[in-house]
UniProtKB/TrEMBL annotation:
Belongs to the glutaminase family. The keyword Repeat applies. It is an enzyme of class 3 (hydrolase). NCBIfam families: Gln_ase. It comes from Gasterosteus aculeatus aculeatus. This is glutaminase. The keyword Hydrolase applies. GO terms for molecular function: glutaminase activity.
Length: 591
């Protein structure tokens, strides 16, 4: 017969398994776990022998592991659903479900460990606890946040599936035509269509042609404006450019009443902004930082094509030179040349979405944590994108979509959902005002499904999906899920709840807890797990879980709860052991 000796040490429980004919085996138990003893086969309802894969660890001595080791083990078994070994692909797939991308620089060391393990292995590489500990050592906080669903989009895999559905719906759109007034633009297929998004926590998702490079064109205008404000300040920049919508086409020869370009989002304003940026070579560095060092290139062919077909922009330049729009000492031709270069910067949907997310995150790149732009410059940029970013469709965009956005004649739309995410859509066919047909349709469908419109938060407004709200955020649903897991002995579900910081002492309508339910049903492994993650709770009339177990004749559970009850009844009795934290009296538990 096995005996378990329980010791309370530094907030953890040590259980010593003894057998009349066997040497002692020592287990370490911390809250929210299931016991492990000897060899066993894990099932969804727990192994045939009491087992704790989360925080009860088989050891050959009584020295405790570090607190972080217990957290890592809990995370490991939560990801693997109680298995001791899983393929590495299983782990990377679980990561992607949370929205974390393997190329995320925050996971660089983790991915390097995995690559090294694959390189050193002959056959298929299996991830065990040892490899997991090596991989997550420096990323434990990030991974705990991810798997506890503490990111801005907690149910990211569900959200990504919705995005895919919108993508497929919009893909059927065949209207519009590819811009041909710049020869290089006319070379792109009208069937190309990609969408990438990146949240302020660095969760990423892409669907379609998201690795195909394309030029930013006018999507660079909010970026260059933000850089100019970051360097020179708002007051200095707006001495030379206005902040009002023009109501005219983006390439019109038109100035406001003060002989200034209407805003930085039209060609005239962008050309003047180009003259305000002092150190031209630093712009590319800014853009790369905004993209988290993901792909940012330059198309020399597009640059040459822009210059050869830029008569309208040259006309705008000379018109503004005659009106003295440029700062003193600025060279108009150099400013135009720099403007053409900026329009020829290449990105992909994936890198573009990180740029948008940097704006959504107040100027801090989500995947590097580096502050690239000042909060002031980002606020001003988003304000102008909202009012002027979509050419003479800006009013309708603000009305129907209600979010800051900027379009370009390459077919790109850079969309920002402040404090949530950035999106980059790309499809070359344009409508009559120069916006991507599919891109506009996607933005409208996105806001129709989710409450991302700036004014969707008004009281009594029509309910939409809110992906920022965790699934099961409703207390009643949480109680039901917890009680059902206890009733059915689903240790894997209980482990997920514990990792997500659910209160394991939630009560149902008659004040019964999950421990009452598991005890009444005789679910041994669920009972042991819950014991490690909560304290004893009486019902209002003084009924304990052990009373339920005794009433329904579950003697094995009665034995465990009896000693568990004994531990907590002796909490005030502590002894001091040299070099160790206070421990509680030793108790014997018959299993």
């Amino acid at each position: 017969m096995h005996c378990l000796r329980a010791l309370r040490r530094s907030g953890s429980l040590q259980l010593v398994a003894k057998h009349a004919d066997a040497a002692k085996k020592v287990f370490t138990a911390q809250p929210a776990c299931r016991l492990t003893a000897g060899e066993s086969t894990t099932t969804s309802r727990g192994p045939p022998v009491p087992a704790c894969a989360d925080r009860f660890h088989l050891k050959t001595n009584i020295h405790s592991k570090s607190p972080s080791s217990g957290v890592e083990d809990l995370l490991f078994y939560t990801i693997t659903e109680g298995k001791e070994h899983v393929p590495i692909s299983y782990f990377t797939s679980a990561l992607k479900k949370t929205g974390l991308h393997p190329s995320d620089p925050r996971l660089k060391d983790c991915m390097e460990e995995l690559r090294q393990a694959v390189k050193e292995s002959v056959g298929e590489v299996m991830m065990d606890r040892d490899l997991f500990h090596r991989c997550v050592g420096g990323n434990i906080v990030l991974l705990i946040q991810a798997f506890r669903k503490k990111f801005i989009i907690p149910e990211f895999d569900v959200f990504a599936q919705k995005i895919n559905e919108i993508y497929k719906t919009v893909q059927k759109q065949k209207d519009g035509r590819v811009a041909d007034y710049i020869p290089q633009l006319a070379k792109f297929s009208p069937d190309l269509w990609g969408v990438s998004l990146c949240t302020v926590d660095g969760q990423r998702h892409s669907v379609g042609d998201t690795k195909q490079p394309f030029c930013l064109q006018s999507c660079v205008k909010p970026l260059q404006y933000a850089i100019a404000v970051h360097e020179a300040g708002t007051e200095q920049v707006h001495r030379y450019v206005g902040m009002e919508p023009s109501g005219l086409k983006f390439n019109m020869l038109s100035l406001d009443d003060e002989d200034k370009p209407h805003n930085p989002m039209v060609n005239a304003g962008a050309i003047v902004i180009s003259s305000l940026i002092k150190v031209k070579r630093l712009v590319m560095e800014f853009v790369k930082k905004m993209a988290g060092q993901e792909y940012v290139g330059f198309s020399n062919a597009m640059f040459q094509s822009e210059k050869e077909t830029g008569n309208r922009n040259f006309a705008i330049g000379y018109y503004m030179k005659e009106k003295k729009c440029f700062p003193l000492g600025a060279d108009m031709i150099d400013s135009l040349d720099f403007y053409f270069q900026l329009c020829s910067i290449e990105v992909t949907c994936e890198s573009g979405s990180i740029m948008a997310a940097t704006l959504a995150n107040g100027g801090i790149c989500p995947i590097t944590g580096e502050r690239v732009l000042s909060a002031e410059s980002v606020r001003n940029t988003l304000s102008l994108m909202h009012s002027c970013g979509m050419y003479d469709f800006s009013g309708q965009m603000a009305f129907h979509v209600g979010l800051p956005a900027k379009s370009g004649v390459s077919g790109a739309i850079l969309l920002v959902i402040p404090n949530v995410m950035g999106v980059m859509c790309w499809s070359p066919p344009l409508d009559r005002v120069g916006n991507s047909v599919r891109g506009i349709h996607f933005c409208q469908e996105l806001v129709s499904l989710f409450n991302f419109h700036n004014y969707d938060n008004l009281r009594h407004f029509v309910k939409k999906l809110d992906p920022r709200r965790p699934d099961g955020d409703d207390r009643n649903k949480s109680v039901f899920n917890l009680m059902f897991a206890a009733y059915s002995g689903d240790v894997s579900a209980l482990r997920r709840f514990a990792l997500s910081s659910m209160d394991m002492e939630l009560k149902d309508y008659d004040s019964r807890t999950a421990l009452h339910i598991s005890a009444a049903e005789g679910e041994f492994h669920a009972t042991v797990f819950i014991c490690g993650s909560r304290h004893l709770v009486n019902e209002p009339w003084g009924n304990l879980p052990i009373d339920d177990a005794r009433q329904f004749g579950h003697e094995e559970v009665v034995t465990v709860l009896k000693d568990y009850q004994q531990v907590y009844s002796q909490r005030g009795v502590q002894h001091t052991e040299a070099g160790h934290s206070p421990i509680m009296d030793t108790i014997e538990v018959i299993v």
